[in-house]
Specification:
The protein is α/β, with parallel strands linked by helices and 476 residues long. The protein folds into 3 domains: 81 residues, Udp-n-acetylmuramoylalanyl-d-glutamate--2,6- Diaminopimelate Ligase, Chain: A, domain 1 (3-Layer(aba) Sandwich); 214 residues, Mur-like, catalytic domain (UDP-N-acetylmuramoyl-L-alanine:D-glutamate ligase, 3-Layer(aba) Sandwich), CATH 3.40.1190.10; 140 residues, Protein-Tyrosine Phosphatase, Chain A (Alpha-Beta Complex). The chain is built from 16 helices and 20 strands.
Amino acid sequence: MSEPLWTLDAFVEAAGGSLKGEAGADITGISIDSRTLQPGDAFVAIKGDRFDGHDFVAAALEAGATVALVAESRLSELPEDGRYVVVEDPLEALRQIGIAARARTSARIVAVTGSVGKTGTKEALRLTLEPSGKVHASVASFNNHWGVPLTLARMPAETDFGVFEIGMNHAGEITPLVQMVRPHVAIITTVQAVHLEFFDSVEQIAKAKAEIFDGLEPGGIAVLNRDNLQFDLLKFLAATKGIATIHTFGENPAADSHTQKVVSYPAGSSVDAAILGQEITYKIGAPGKHHVKNSLAVLTAVADLGADLAKAGLALDTMRAPKGRGEVSRLPVPNGELNLIDESYNANPASMRAALAVLGEAPVTRPGRRIAVIGDMRELGTDADRLHAELLKPVRDAEIDAVYCAGPHMHALWQELPHDLRAHYCEDAADLEEVLLNDVRAGDVVMVKGSLGTRMGPLVEALKKEYPPVDDTEAA
């Protein structure tokens, strides 16, 4: 029988709380959502932007929660016969549980940040470390002030490798998170013009990303993108924080880990690379040069963590782009099929360029077309229209045949597009649906991308509903 995630006593002690009610069982998991809670989980009633977990305590207890971690000030509103760990602030208690989880493990830890590629890199690390031991990694994009401590709190004591994604859109956000995680290896995938609404310059973003060095364990290693324009600044910031070992990755042959030969094909890439002096050949089961680049960072970290590099290379062949982040579906349409690239989860200038490049690399059988369906990128501040208009070059470079635009900022690109590339423009993504369903045809490769708030995801679902996929799990 496997060990519980937490004994009740250890959980109460880590939370700094007191037990109220009859809770005899140990804790097998930790949940902040009563809808997905499993029997045996501890339910943490945190207050979010839209919901307060205390409103769902009764539902959590009914669903089989061992205990609910609740605020003392809310106790009088909760069921009297409940099972509670009572604290002053549940979110702060969750942080303390996370810190205790980190303290009790001897796992080797890697943390990832960057303007783009965090989640894909985190998932690739999970995949490549699994052949070498028991891996614990954050689910989805749990990379913020509650996601990181929740991921830590869920980490079993006997974990061999921990993988953490750390995000931010303001200066000062990463430091407290990475000081909880205390990684042995810290990766910065890249620094780009993202969240410019909250920063004066890309250099300011680089400085905020460099906060990941604040929690690096003594003797820890920084893994940096040698090709990134902010590399020199990041290297300087790492050195000023006392980091002695900096490993670099990229296409540049001067990088410690670099590509030697890359062959792209519809379902991914074949790569010859040198990783910290070791030559390795491997395949990646997801398309795009950005996956190739980030695989170098992943394999560098694998080697730095002491895991098996050869097995890690083999594991990359099983990598698949997740839904909303590059998943490819084959949709049967009259007289053939089209390929749908779902990049609808989110967008910023760097990830939009990467997605357009993936579309450009996709083989097309004429008269099929490369079609970009793109929506506004949010949080770009006063530069928003300029940054949207500048997408003209990556659109041209990718040899895209038709562009559908949604959102007020995308109008800046629409005005720059030559007439033969203009398919349709509207302010609201929902208004593209009917046009798109009528326009697509056999042989097309359709890529859909935009910021979450622009709501491009429903366009993907509409296409799938109209033309049910041959194999919804296939990713290329």
